[in-house]
Structures are given as C-alpha cells and as structure tokens.
Amino acid sequence: MLVTRDVDICCRFSEANLLRIQNAFADLHPVHRSRPDLPLQLTSEQCASLKNLYLRTDLGVVDCLGAVLGVGDYDEVLKNSIEVELPCGLCWIISIETLIRAKEAMNRDHDRITVKHLKEIIKQRN
C-alpha cells in the first residue's frame, strides 16, 4: 500500500470560496507551505491570481487545487467523482479510473507505481 501524507482538494477558486476555505481551516493555524512564516490571510488580489493553494496545518498538509491534471477543472472533477460516506459526513472523491488518469498524466515515478496498484485493485474487483 502507498500512503500519501497530504490531502488534495479540488475546488472552485472564487474569492468567496477561498475565503470559506480560509475560515474552515482557521482553527488549524494554516500557513503557506512554501512560506511557513506566512499565515493564511488571503486578500482579494491573491484570490484573483491563485490557481492552487498549498497549506500546512496543525493536522498536516492540504493542497487546494483549481484543476487536476488529466481530468480538468472543478466541474470536470466533480463529474468524475463518487459520493462516499465518511465518519465526518458525505464526501465526493474521484473514481479510481479518474485517479488513474490523473496519475498517468502526472507521470512521476511514484505515480507510475500507484497506477500499477490501482489497476490491480480494479482487476481484483472484477
């Protein structure tokens, strides 16, 4: 099994939505991952120019993405997602087939390994 140490969230990058994300993470003391000395305090100008938002919080790393390589923007990601029940409530996650497309598009060494594992999972399901 391969384990990542972050959570990736695909979301609309509107100012209102980014400010909701900022408020949702406020109690977890979010900072910019590349600049941990900068707390997350978004401005209108930043919201207008951001494509992705990489954060470190008290609970770990969160990557907020405006699009997923190999899949598309938020609307395309949502179309290729399934609803699952988690202990915290309902959540939309990309399907395993969509995850394979994304990993193949990224084409890093660990992504190629992940694709092999994911294809094996599909094979075992069938």
Helix content: 40-55%
**Radius of gyration, Cα only, in angstroms?**
16 Å
If you average the pLDDT, what whole number results?
Answer: 94
What class would the helix/strand composition place it in?
A: alpha+beta
Oligomer: single chain
Which strand-content bin applies to the residues?
25-35%
Q: What's the total helix number?
A: 5
Overall shape: it is globular
Q: What kind of sheet is the major sheet? A: 5 strands, mixed
The overall strand count is 9
As residue ranges, the low-confidence spans are none
| Terminal CA distance | 19 Å
Reading side by side through the largest sheet, how are the strands ordered?
A: 1-5-4-2-3
Order of helices and strands: EHEEHEEEEHEEHH
Descriptive overview:
The protein is of the alpha+beta class. The protein has helices at 15-25, 44-49, 74-79, 96-106, 109-125, and strands at residues 6-10, 31-32, 35-39, 52-57, 60-65, 67-68, 72-73, 81-86, 89-94. The strands form three sheets. It has a five-stranded mixed β-sheet, with no helix packed on it. Strand 8 and strand 9 form a beta hairpin. Helix 4 (96-106) packs antiparallel against helix 5 (109-125). The model has no long low-confidence stretch (mean pLDDT 94).
